[in-house]
Amino acid sequence: MIKIYKNENDELECHVNYAGYDFKFQCIKDNYGAIFEGSNSTEYREFESYIDVDNEVLRNLQDVMYNIASVCNWRESFGEER
Question: Engineering a disulfide at 43: which of 23, 31, 64, 74 sits with its beta carbon 3.0 to 4.6 angstroms away?
């Protein structure tokens, strides 16, 4: 399961629960790009090393999260039912 959502701190968060790995990381956009908090965690690094060896999954998740966070008002309507 991979889920991207707005957490209780109004941060964009990704929860990955796949192949025995269970971790979360957040996308914090700044003036120069984005910081992905939690990407230094042990589970994230192990997933990156053993499951996502070509960095395809995590890179794509980070790209999607960056694009969402780049929309100025993403916090106002993200996750609302349409």
Answer: 23
